[in-house]
Amino acid sequence: MPITFQCKSCSAKFRVDEKMAGKKVRCPKCQTVGEIPAAEPELLLPDPEPELPLPDPEPEIDYQMKSNVDDDFWSQTAGAMPMPAAAPAPSTSTSSSGNSGRQGNGLSEKDARRRVVFPATVLCAFALLGIVLGGLGLVAMVLLLIGGANRLPPDQLITNLIVTVLVFAGSIGTYRGANALRNLRGSAGSVWFALIVGMTPFGTYVCCPLAIPFAIWGIALMCDKRIASRFRD
């Protein structure tokens, strides 16, 4: 049975054969000479209980949303979670909370609508009046042409009929363009048509002198890129 002894100088422990008991040996670590003590009976200790193996941890599964091309629904499939995309740096041009409703052009829809609503509404009213008067004139011309009870030459009657048709059609186009300007929605071409033709009798009929300042007002607003950019080309 091996004997375990401890060096008195460096406290190093060594194991030697029991046959070396009572002999002097030199410590291999500090070279100090010491005597090996006699073997002492070792206490019988109970065997330690065997350690039970720990259960294997459940594998961690990261779920990510995956869309199949042939399936309209989203399904969860196990796999590595993709790294999130880096968040864009906050814009310094619109840092205040009051500018949260503003677009990149710097003018919110509410502010733009407040600027155009008055001239556009007035042009809509004049255009509606032109539609009503032009429609009545068109009906009267058709009745005169069919009934033959007119005292005008046929060529003059046809000319008046053509002019009335143009006034009626132009008033409709003016109303549509002015309404698009009021709602900040629609084609920019229809808006420009309403602003230009609305200054003539073909757009607002007898109200064209009153419509001219409001049409010029609308043209000035459309020259502002912050407003014109809200309409499609």
Automatic annotation (TrEMBL):
The keyword NADP does not apply. Keywords: Membrane, Transmembrane, Transmembrane helix. Residues 80-100 have a biased composition (Low complexity). It holds the Pfam family Zn_ribbon_4. Residues 40-59, 80-108 are annotated as: Disordered. InterPro entries: Znf/thioredoxin_put (IPR011723). Residues 5-33 form the Zinc finger/thioredoxin putative domain. The chain crosses the membrane at residues 116-145, 157-178, 190-223. The keyword Transmembrane applies. It comes from the Bacteria. This is Zinc-ribbon domain-containing protein. It comes from Blastopirellula sediminis. The lineage of its organism: Bacteria, Pseudomonadati, Planctomycetota, Planctomycetia, Pirellulales.
